[in-house]
Structures
1.
Amino acid sequence: MARVIVRLFHELRSAFGQGELELEAETINDLINSLISKDQSVKGLFFDANGKLRSYTMVYINNTAQNPPELARKLNDGDLILLVPTAAGG
C-alpha cells in the first residue's frame, strides 16, 4: 500500500469538509473505493448506475492528467492525487 496525498475539489471537498486527505491505497480504484467507504454519497460522482467510471471526473497523479484514468494504475508513496469532478452550473 502506498501512502498518498489526495486533494479534493468541488463536491468532494464539500462532502469531506476539507481539501486534502492522506490515505493508503495500492491503485486508483482502491483510492476511490476508500473515499466511497468514508462517504457513500460520493459514489455517484465517480461511477454511473452500471458501475462504470464517469468520464468527466478528472484524475491527476503528480500533476499529470490521467485521461482516461486507469483504475488499476499502481500508486507510489508520496504521490499527489488530484480528484476533480467537473463542476456544473450556468
Note: The chain has three helices and five strands.
2.
Amino acid sequence: MNRSRLYLPLFLSILLFSVVYFEGQGTLYLPGSRTSEVLLFVAFVSLIFFAVRAFDLVVFDMFVSRRRKVRAPVLLREIVSIVLYAVLLASAISNIFGYSITALLATGTVVAAVLGLALQETLGNLFAGIALSLEDSFEVGDVIRTGETLGVVESVRWRGTHLRTFNNNILIVPNSVLARERLEVFPRKNLNARILQIGVDYNVPPATVIGVLAQAASNVDGVSRDLPCFARVGGFAESAVTYEIKYFTHDYSQRDRIDADVRKAVWYALRRNAISIPYPMRMFQRYTPPETKHHPDTSKMLERLQDVDILSPLPPEAHEAIAAAARVRVYSKGETILRHGAAGDSMFIVHEGMVSVRVGGEEVARLGEGEFFGEMALLTGEARVADIVAVTDVVAVEITKAALQPVLQDVPDLATAISSKVMERRGTLDSLRDGAHEEEEKSILSRIRSYFGL
C-alpha cells in the first residue's frame, strides 16, 4: 500500500482536531457551534479513512498474506472497507450531529430504492464479483476465455475483472458478463493441453514421424514433464499427412511462446532426420470438351449442301468453301427459329429433327432432314415470309450471305443458274400460301445481282 494513502488522512485528522481544540479554547467539543461540528465531523472522517486503511494493511497484508501465505482477493478487501466506512460514518453522524441511525435508515428507504434502480448494473457487477469469488472460479494468474476474449487475470475488483490479453493490453470485463456467459478457465495449477498441427510428406512412414515429433516437443521449455506429450495422425490433407502434437503446460499464459518453440524444434528435428515439410501440390488436367454427337462435321455438311437443289449449280470447290464457313445451330422443341417479317441474310438446312412452316398462325408444311428454308433471305435479303417452329429438337446448318458471296463474286454466271432453281421452288411454295403477295416486278435474277453487288 502507498504510504501517502495511509499517513495523509492521519495528518489531516490531527490538524483538524487541533483547529477544533484551539477554536474551543481547550474544549474539544462545543455543542452550540455549527462550525465546530462540521470541522469535528471532517476530522473524524479523516480519522476513519486512516483507521480503515490501517485495518486493511494489518489484517490482509500482514496477517493473511504473510502468515497464511495466501494473497487476499482485492474484491474481499474492497467489500470489507466499504462496510467499515458505512458503519463508522453512520456512527460519526449520529454522535456529532445528534441524528438517530434508525431515523436515518427510515428516511433513506426511498432514496435507497432510487439509488438501487439507478445503480442496478453496478450492483449486478458487485454481486456477480462476490459470487465468482465465493465459487473460487478462477484466481489471479489464471488464463480465462469468455466469448472471443482471452487473457490472464490480473485482479478482480468490485466492478469488473482486469485481464491482460496476449497483445499485452488491459481489458476490463464486467463481472456480470463473466457470470452470465460461458467461461473457460485455464488454471495455473492445472495441466492445460495444447494441440498443434504439422504437415509432413506422404512418403515418410507415420511411425517414424510420430517418434520424431514427440521427442522434439518434449524437450521444449514450458512443456510439462508430468504428462508426456505425444503425436498422432490427425488427417490427410491435399499435399501432406497432418499430424497433431499434444503437449501439456502449467502456465497457459505462455502458450504462444511455447507453440513457437515447439514448431522451431520440430523444424530442426525433421531436418536432422531428412523429413521434408511438403509444399502445396496441385494436379492440373487439360479440359476436354464433351463430344458433340449430334453436330455434323464438315463432310456431313458437305453432303447436306450437295442435296440442296438451289445450290446444285455450284461446283464442288464452292460447296467445300460454303461447308467450311457454315455454322451449326441447335434448337429445342417448340422454339421459334424464324419469325415472320424479321430481317435476315441466311438460310437453314435441317440436319436432324423436324420444323413446322406456319403462315398466319396455321401450319402449311413440315420440313425434315435434308430440307431447307429461308433461301430468299440468303439470296435477296427480303424479310422472312413465314414462322418456322421446331417440332422436335433440331440441329440445323446455317449458310450466311458472307459464305456465299465470295463464290458468286468469282463466278457471276452462277447467279443465273441459282435463280432458275429458286423460280421452280417459289412456284411450289406459292401454291401452298393462300393470299400471299404477288411476285415483285423485278426478276429473281436481278434481285440476286443487286443484293450481292454482281
Note: Residues 137-186 form a domain with the SH3 type barrels. fold (CATH 2.30.30.60).
